[in-house]
Specification:
two-stranded antiparallel ribbon, mainly alpha, about 270 residues, 12 helices
Length: about 270
């Protein structure tokens, strides 16, 4: 419990006081620099590429979390899987382990982000970002795994109530109730954006990349600075002042990381699924 509390609140400090505040400052920089006179005014605003772009701080954190989680899962398989006779449970564990490895390699484009090799022709023709990965080829490889990941990280504490007959599976899916805290944060981050998009209330910000040579993803503000615009309110309450997909994936990988530490300590029942 103390171990979880230490890691959980330290992670929250990093997320809230660095990522979110940095995101607010970068996205609303045109307003901040207009009203706070000692900050040089700049009409450019947007998302800080050092933090949110490919191979940035957030993505590297995700990779680190996944490496540790894969190691913990490997230790669990090597030391604990012998204590169960359930073929279904063993199959489920191996599928989960393979899924973690697939997630890890997709995040680093199977090594391309680190070794910078030339994208093979087949991926260059099919991949939207011209990278060596599958999730930018089709929704089948992107939205389906992402939805499954969202359900796993945010709703496992509900699904586990249906698994009373399968003790080992129940323990693996939801090894500790502290994971609910991370699930609640994920739901808070995901739901506002999801609801507004489903209701077609999404308000995009005005792009003009020609005016933004210094930022990777930014917009040019064409409105009177002193007035609040709809897209500014939308971005604030739906966390779109950061790169939302990357922020969500960071929370997913953090859930997987903490889950792996609990799983590593599990005591399985031999004749139970």
């Amino acid at each position: 419990m103390k171990y979880f509390r230490f890691n959980f609140y330290n992670f929250l400090i990093v997320v809230i006081f660095f990522l979110l505040l940095e995101g607010i400052y970068s996205f609303y920089h045109y307003k901040v620099s207009f009203f706070i006179k000692f900050i040089d005014y700049d009409y450019r605003s947007g998302i800080n590429p050092i933090v949110w772009n490919e191979s940035g701080i957030v993505e590297n954190l995700q990779v680190l979390f996944l490496i540790i989680a894969i190691f913990n899962c490997f230790v669990f398989i090597k030391k604990k899987i012998i204590f169960t006779t359930s073929k279904f449970f063993v199959f489920f564990i191996y599928i989960y382990f393979i899924g973690l490895i697939y997630f890890f390699f997709e995040e680093i484009s199977w090594g391309q982000h680190f070794f910078n090799w030339k994208t093979p022709v087949i991926f260059e023709n099919l991949n939207q970002q011209k990278e060596t990965n599958f999730h930018n080829i089709s929704n089948l490889f992107n939205e389906v795994p992402r939805t499954l990941l969202l359900l796993w990280c945010s709703l496992s504490f509900i699904a586990v109530k249906k698994l009373f007959e399968y003790k080992n599976l129940k323990l693996f899916v939801f090894p500790d109730y502290n994971l609910r805290k991370i699930s609640f944060i994920i739901l808070i981050v995901v739901i506002p954006d999801l609801i507004l998009k489903k209701l077609n209330l999404y308000v995009d910000y005005p792009h003009n990349l020609d005016h933004c040579p210094a930022l990777g993803t930014c917009f040019f503000y064409p409105y009177p600075i002193e007035f609040i615009q709809n897209f500014e309110v939308f971005a604030l309450f739906t966390f779109n002042f950061v790169k939302l997909s990357e922020f969500q994936e960071l929370l997913f990988t953090y859930y997987i990381l903490i889950h792996s530490f609990y799983v590593k300590k599990l005591k399985l029942t031999k004749n139970s699924s």
